[in-house]
Structures are given as structure tokens and as C-alpha cells.
Amino acid sequence: MVIIFLLLLFWENEMHEEARMPSFEQLNVDYPRTDVPMRYCNYMILQRVIKEPGNTCKKEHVFIHERPRKINAICTSLEKLPCHNHSTFPCFQSRIKFKMTACELIEGTRYPVCRYHISPKEGFILVTCSDIGAINFQGLIE
Fold it and tell me: Residues 6-46: pLDDT tens digits?
């Protein structure tokens, strides 16, 4: 009976974990930048539980090193751009460049056994916005 109870409890937790959608800030904002001198991407991907559906490794991911309110200010721009993924939310491009870290998958297919290459970047960001601010990172323009 105890084993069945534990299995049901584990399964219920897994179901709730899949149902929770992390926010833009939880996924893409790291301000101030976490001080991990080596293996920054590997550490951050594990800490933030960043993965594709089906527990596969995400091929690439970007962390933006700026205050959330400064990122959300992008959404007040009057210039709307078409989104690449045909989102129902409008896309906006930043007017200033942001410091970022790009993580590119170099090894692994199943989360959490994923290894990433780190690339410091600086560029304009493209985000989708809702009434609450930035909700999805769409890309960067160097």
C-alpha cells in the first residue's frame, strides 16, 4: 500500500509540474548575472529546469542580464513587429542593446543530461508582450 501511495504521489507531482508554465522572468531573466565562473549555462539550465516537452534538451536558450522593468518597458513602444512564430500577441524590439548569455546545446538529448556552450552576447531583443509586460523571448538581433 505504501508503495502505491508513493507512486500516486510522485505521478501527481509530475502532472502538476507539467501544468505550471514558468514566467518570462523565470525562464529568460538573470539579473544581476549569477556568479558562476565556469559552466554557467549548464548550471542555469538545471537551476531553472529549462527543457523541451518530453524532457528533451533545449537546443538553445538565452538569459538576459537586465532588470525586468527595463525589459518590460520594451512593451510600451508604439512600433509593433510581426512575430516569427505567428503569435497572437504583438512583438516588440528593444531600442537599446542588452547584455545576454546564449546557451547552445553541444551534448545530450534527454534532460537533465544536457551540456551547453556559453556565448556572451549584446544586442537588441525581440519579445512578445501582453498587458502585464514581456511574456516570451522571440530572438536577438546583434
Answer: 344 444 444 444 456 789 999 999 999 999 878 999 999 99
Q: Residue 66 and residue 63: Cα distance in Å, rounded?
A: 9
Provide the strand spans (E) within 31-114.
60-64, 91-93, 98-107
Spell out the residues 6+ positions from residue 21 whose beta carbon is closer than 8 angstroms to its own: none
Amino acid at position 134, single letter: A
Domain span at residue 74 reads: 23-141
Residue 94, in any domain of the structure: yes
Q: Model-level pTM greater than 0.85?
A: no
CATH code of the domain in which 56 resides: 3.10.130.10
